[in-house]
Design goal:
With 174 residues, the protein is an alpha+beta fold. The chain has two helices and eight strands, in the order ααββββββββ. The model has no long low-confidence stretch (mean pLDDT 83).
């Protein structure tokens, strides 16, 4: 009986050894496919790193270029502002009874001057006593000016009456 039992067990073992296992074959195919996919993934990751380094490089160059443009624009604006300020400062500045052209100031006005003299205030201050010119509407009037300061001058008429005189004062204001 032992023989009888040994035969089916042997036959069964031979049957199992001789059988192809389709799952084993599929498993090998899947392992090969996984290997190919891993290689593909590694290749894609390498390409991503390469592309990222190119993007980083372009970004850095773009930032450097933008910074240089901003710097140039700031310089241009600064120079333009200086030019505008220079032009503004060289334009005549006027007020009531005076004008300023660069550092020259011209004031004008009038008042009555008699034998005892009278002070007339300039409309704006000079930084040093200006040159003062006077005129009178009276032909025979002899007039004069003394005590010239940065803010006023004393005007005289050498006749007994007070005459209206006009003046023009020119000097530096800055």
């Amino acid at each position: 009986m032992r023989k009888f039992l040994l035969f089916p067990i042997t036959y069964f073992c031979l049957f199992l050894i001789g059988c192809e296992n389709p799952l084993e074959e599929r498993l090998n195919e899947l392992e090969d496919e996984v290997g190919v996919q891993k290689e593909l993934i590694n290749s894609l990751i390498d390409q991503i790193y390469t592309q990222q380094s190119i993007i980083d490089s372009l970004h850095n160059r773009n930032r450097e270029y933008s910074d240089s443009l901003y710097s140039e624009i700031d310089t241009l604006i600064s120079n333009q502002n200086k030019t505008i300020q220079l032009l503004i400062s060289s334009l005549p500045s006027t007020g009531e009874d005076y004008i300023r052209i660069d550092s020259l100031q011209i004031c004008w006005g009038g008042g009555f001057a008699g034998i005892s003299g009278s002070y007339i205030e300039f409309p704006v201050v000079f930084i040093e006593p200006p040159k003062v010119f006077i005129t009178s509407l009276v032909k025979q009037d002899l007039s004069g000016v003394t005590n010239i300061t940065t803010t006023r001058a004393k005007f005289y008429s050498y006749n007994d009456t007070n005459y209206f005189i006009s003046y023009c004062a020119m000097g530096r204001w800055k």
